[in-house]
Amino acid sequence: MEFDVIVIGSGPGGYVAAIRCAQLGMKTAIVEKYNALGGTCLNVGCIPSKALLDSSEHYSNATHHFAEHGIEIKAPKINFGTMIDRKNEVVKKMNNGVNFLMKKNKITVFNGFGSFIDSKTIKVVKNEGGEETLKGKNIIVATGSKPTILPFMNYDKDRIITSTEALNLKEIPKHLIVIGAGVIGAELGSVYGRLGSKVTFIEFAGSMIPTMDSSMGKELQKSLKKQFDSEFHFNTKVTGIKNTGKEVEVIAENNKGEQVNFKADYCLVAIGRRPYTDNLNLSLAGLTPDDRGRIAVDEHTLETSVKGIYAIGDVIRGAMLAHKAEEEGVLVAETIAGQKPHIHYNLIPGVVYTWPEVASVGATEDELKKSGAAYKIGSFPFKALGRATASGDTDGLVKVLADKNTDEVLGVHIIGARAADMIAEAVTAMEFRASAEDLGRISHAHPTYMEAVKEAALAATDNRSIHS
Prior knowledge:
- The protein is α/β, with parallel strands linked by helices.
- It has three domains: 2-145 and 274-345, FAD/NAD(P)-binding domain, CATH 3.50.50.60; 151-271, FAD/NAD(P)-binding domain; 356-462, Enolase-like, domain 1 (2-Layer Sandwich), CATH 3.30.390.
- Helices cover 32% and strands 25% of the residues.
- It has helices at residues 12-23, 39-44, 46-64, 80-104, 163-166, 183-194, 214-227, 322-336, 365-371, 386-391, 419-431, 436-441, 451-462; strands at residues 2-8, 28-32, 108-118, 121-126, 131-141, 145-147, 160-161, 175-179, 198-202, 230-233, 237-243, 248-253, 259-264, 266-269, 273-275, 309-311, 350-352, 357-362, 375-381, 397-403, 409-416.
- α1 (12-23) runs parallel beside α8, α3 (46-64) runs antiparallel to α4 and α3 packs parallel to α6 (183-194).
- The protein starts with a strand and ends in a 6-residue tail after the last helix.
- The model has no long low-confidence stretch (mean pLDDT 97).
């Protein structure tokens, strides 16, 4: 079978690339090793984790906050099985949605493991049995990533688990150790902390969400400590994990070089993800991944060193984000069609879906300091915001970083209610190279959370914040 484009992998990058290729008139196929489309994001990542985050947030509000709103109920109980079933139903609906989009756009779907025979040929070992050979004028590698597990961690999918198993536990842990206080660790730690687990975070870096602006990690830690039974061990290196039967023991080394031990009934390993390029037979196509499994691509076209083969998403450099992969999928499709698309990588936002949410775009303050750039800061706390006070969501702040000389917005960092949605205004402003004063002069509806962005921008302009 011959196609204009063959996409290997049906995650957000892969299926979006396939749709855009089809929209542009190309005969397109997509190869997916699992029977369900959508990749990690839809099946064992973004979507199911957000479903559980929302369910656990409802429970937390019913337990701790309904009474202050004058809502009196009997003590709520958790039916964890129903919660997991709801999560699975959400995933199923999204699976069906992607299937519909494939049919709508006349994209041929092959469920099976795809690998290279040569630079223009893909072998598909089909899930239902048998093989199929596909010829493609262009091939897009969009196979995503897998959780990183180090050998000494003794990953067993039972009590020593990754995010995949954490989304399908049969019980709520009494005590959950989370190795890694980054995005995945913070989110899944929040899920189980709200549901009653004690959560112990062990992090090699010096703070939570260490890839984001340092002020965000400090604020998030303060907020989570108020919400559930939690403890934090930073600058701590894990050296071993053992499943002792009904318990897990974690051996680590603190910043003084001393051995420290932790025990719990489950241990979640959330130390990052690695590109999934295993068994693709890249060498037969003339490609060699780097020591981290990443495929090198041209920074403008995302074409590899082999003409007609492209790579997107988690298998190439950059942040492992679903929306980054989507933008790259569109870019590759339009490049193949002869267009000249562009992605501004500095303006791809990052989000942590805890409550409060955390969202960032652009440079962090640490990055600006390191580069020697002249900058100024404006910040505004949610506790001074009418909308946040009315809803009871007063934890958090907005931080705007602007060029000291030109006033151009260089970075925006938000922790607070609806930060994930709020960051879009900052991305828009920065795409148009707005100044802090531009952002501060835009009329924002009152009362809204977005007023915090306006106020922080005014504070960065000339310390002109009205309400702080």
